[in-house]
Amino acid sequence: MTQTRTTRLERGRSALGPALELVHTGRAPTRAVLTSELGVTRATAGAVAAELEALGLITVDSRPHASAGSQGRPSHRLFVNEDGPVVLAAQIHADGYRAALVGLGGRIVATTPSCGIIPADPAQVLAEVVEAGAALLRETGRRCLGAGLAVPSAVAEPDGEALNPLHLAWPSGAPVRELFLRALAEAGIPGVTEKIGFTGNDVNLGALAEHRHGAGRGARHLLCVASGHRGVGGALVLDGRLHSGSSGLALEVGHLTVHPEGAPCHCGSRGCLDVEADPLAFLVAAGREPGPEVSLLHQAVELLRNEYSEPGVRTAADLLIDRLGLGLAGLVNILNPDRIILGGLHRALLEADPERLRAVVADRSLWGRSGGVPILPCSLDHNSLVGAAELGWQPVLNDPLVVLD
Amino acid sequence: MTQTRTTRLERGRSALGPALELVHTGRAPTRAVLTSELGVTRATAGAVAAELEALGLITVDSRPHASAGSQGRPSHRLFVNEDGPVVLAAQIHADGYRAALVGLGGRIVATTPSCGIIPADPAQVLAEVVEAGAALLRETGRRCLGAGLAVPSAVAEPDGEALNPLHLAWPSGAPVRELFLRALAEAGIPGVTEKIGFTGNDVNLGALAEHRHGAGRGARHLLCVASGHRGVGGALVLDGRLHSGSSGLALEVGHLTVHPEGAPCHCGSRGCLDVEADPLAFLVAAGREPGPEVSLLHQAVELLRNEYSEPGVRTAADLLIDRLGLGLAGLVNILNPDRIILGGLHRALLEADPERLRAVVADRSLWGRSGGVPILPCSLDHNSLVGAAELGWQPVLNDPLVVLD
DNA sequence: CTGGCTTTGTGCCGACGCTAAACAAAATAC
DNA sequence: GTATTTTGTTTAGCGTCGGCACAAAGCCAG
Q1: Which of A277, B131, B202, B356 is the most buried if burial means most Cβ atoms within 10 Å?
Q2: Mean pLDDT (whole number) for B331-335
């Protein structure tokens, strides 16, 4: 119990938020790093750390630990408080929905199994998933500071409507943010009064999670591309902030042309990435009849992992890698990211033949410098869920004193 | 002479920079607006304005002026100081080079005529253009606070090398930023010691200028596309900041596929925007033999403006509008900007048939909401030059107290 | 083991940049 | 002319952070 806090920090915009974000994203393991990262003095960093500890958000390990061999006094280490508050995260996807409690640092504290049936009524789905989350809160007794939701469709800003949720039987334009907030209010979940944030596209939120806690950590301009059930989604994190466009419709990368003579697409064009490099396209290219029992993504990934040695599967994979590479090269020319992360089927394609994909991207993007961008598989389980939690954490990261209510 | 400044503001990060930027971009005509835009109290806004006035950067008109009919005490109006310091702006383009002095607010105070010959040695060109700028400084007796340079090629970060300057006889990889800084030092221009900024791609800088002073003012996500001599350039301003990618190569939009069966491009693909919608493509489509006397851009724009009624010209224009629209639609799907500004030949195409272009973009981008993005012609003369000046102004906008040296 | 050296953490004081609140000024509304 | 609205200024005060001195805790040299 360190009660020796002397400089009382009061509510307002101070270094508290940035400091918490550094610990949250694992970039501030000690007070010393906090000092240099924030650009403040040791005195300030110490006071900020003490305040965050007093708020119950972080813990400090004062015991001497095996130091890294450098001389000088060893630092005390800072951790997010594993037993601290959580946010409620919810995800709707093609195979079902899932609720979880996520702590600082992006750690999933508790989760429900994925429920496999999606009712056609968005309000009912959201009420069910929020109730599942509320049950987790009751079981664990954790304090809840916010909530976030990931949906498998574009989310129109500023009102948060789900546009063209192709994988679900939902109507286009369903006001998911409003329905989610209403469900939270009905379930008595606190900390969700604000009208901003809280709902986002799953690929976007997965990208945000990867940037903060996964393979995208440290990237300045991060591009994520992932194929789920049908179609291809993209997301872009610029200087730590999600770019979702002026109305939430950015990175609709599914309609890049990657095969001019290719299959027709519902958008009216031909050979779009959406129809040339998604799970269905892979199964068809490999000559398999897609079955209805499990998701197309699951079938495609299993086929790729288990039967890659078969020539037909290998050929289909090469074809999709080439198409995907062409699309990524186009994005590289436009966005010039310093890292690319792939999810879903595209992750499996990358892992099947990393060199082929990298070569295609480097070959078709301008100048080797830009073409040499690292391409990595995503590294988090349930990254959309963790990303949804980031939405709920954001007010706390902006001003940790909101914890005091 | 208002000497009644009481609250002395000292060097450091205060509201001075944001306040100056608001006046600079014309978004703070009065102290009252400054108060609300900065989110500070009237007392602070007043002190900040007084300090900026004392620094010689802005002027205050205390005389009563014809108020806008609203009740309450009329505001005093704030202006950038027309007789204040300037920055040296330089531009290299296909037709020559030009130097200018640019004040706050993006106003061109003095400019040289465009010199029509570009020597093959970058160092010599930059020495000449800087010397022309130095001569302007001597003539006008203005104080110089910085400098900026616009070049017609991608500029690789972080070192500032010109990549593939197709329009010039320069070698690719010429270290233009270093050469520019050296020329400035030789000419004794002050305020250019820092190693960051100061050199950028002309379309990027034009976009920045349009965002701050022209048709892009107020846009949150601004996309600019322009065709100059050959090829097509793009630029993106996000939340007021230029996105030039992780290595300065973003928005190389010239290789979007807009005509799958189109002409081969040096990038290895076919039907790229670069070869389908630039001035040469237009002249060829209209059945004209491009002459060597003036620039291709000039020939194309003149043809479009003077002979639009001729069927062949009209048909060629429609063709290019369709190609350009396809490329813009692809960009809209990826970037979801809230405004698009066109320059060069594309501006002329827009003005020739605005409805056709808007219809193509709306038709080929997803969802009307995203497709309804406003498309405007650029509105500044010499926007690249003004944008280059913005690079020079940036340190002053970050901390106006640098004026004190 | 002892005495430097280096790095980290803390207590104290002051300064800077802002807010809050009262007051003053200049216009319109009635 | 008086009330109301909006803008600008003055004064007091507070919060956050920098500067500095000092203490603590580990290496390293002898």
Answers
A1: A277
A2: 96
